[in-house]
């Protein structure tokens, strides 16, 4: 009986500790969430996933604007895919630590609609981008995006090669 009395608190404590997600499992979950953004939302235009992956209070820091909330993300994806209907984002690198995930990816598409206030060119572009995501409870709450806009504008013929 004495052994059981000692084992019971230890078993309860181990079960409680085992229920808390490990740092590795949180990191893996965060990576899985972030990877769905370029592959399913931006590349496929699946805006229904935005509600699942982004927090209500999301803030996105993009070079041309700050995007707020899920509807802000949805509007941006829809507008961008009107400019580049065949837009694809291919992941190259991923780094994750605590609540942050950084991805480097290649984006490409054909400009068939207005973009950055300019008419469609019909030109195909391919650029490098880096995005940093901050997550809370498995949802994206903040994002910083760094696309190679200069390269994109050159490929669109909006600025001349130097």
What labels describe this entry?
5 helices; six-stranded mixed sheet; alpha+beta; 162 residues; Nuclear Transport Factor 2, Chain: A; single chain
Question: How would you characterize this protein structure?
Answer:
This protein starts with a helix and ends in a 7-residue tail after the last helix. The chain has helices spanning 2-19, 23-42, 50-53, 69-83, 149-155, and strands spanning 54-62, 65-68, 88-97, 100-110, 124-136, 139-147. A hairpin with a 2-residue loop joins strand 1 and strand 2. It has a single domain, classed as Roll (Nuclear Transport Factor 2, Chain: A), CATH 3.10.450.50. Helix content is 40%, strand content 35%. With 162 residues, the protein is α+β, with helices and mostly antiparallel strands.
Short description, anyone?
With 162 residues, the chain is α+β, with helices and mostly antiparallel strands.
């Amino acid at each position: 009986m004495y052994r059981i009395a000692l084992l019971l608190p230890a078993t309860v404590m181990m079960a409680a500790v085992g229920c808390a997600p490990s740092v590795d499992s949180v990191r893996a979950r965060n990576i899985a969430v972030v990877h769905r953004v370029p592959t399913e939302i931006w590349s496929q235009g699946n805006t229904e996933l935005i509600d699942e992956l982004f927090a209500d209070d999301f803030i996105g820091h993009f070079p041309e604007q700050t995007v707020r909330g899920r509807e802000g993300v949805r509007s941006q994806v829809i507008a961008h895919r009107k400019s580049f209907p065949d837009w694809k984002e291919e992941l190259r690198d991923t780094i994750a630590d605590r609540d942050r995930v950084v991805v480097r990816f290649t984006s490409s598409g054909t400009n068939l609609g207005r973009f950055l206030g300019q008419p469609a060119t019909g030109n195909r572009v391919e650029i490098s981008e880096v995005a940093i995501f901050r997550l809370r409870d498995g949802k994206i709450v903040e994002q910083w995006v760094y696309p190679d806009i200069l390269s994109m504008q050159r490929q669109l013929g909006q600025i001349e090669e130097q």
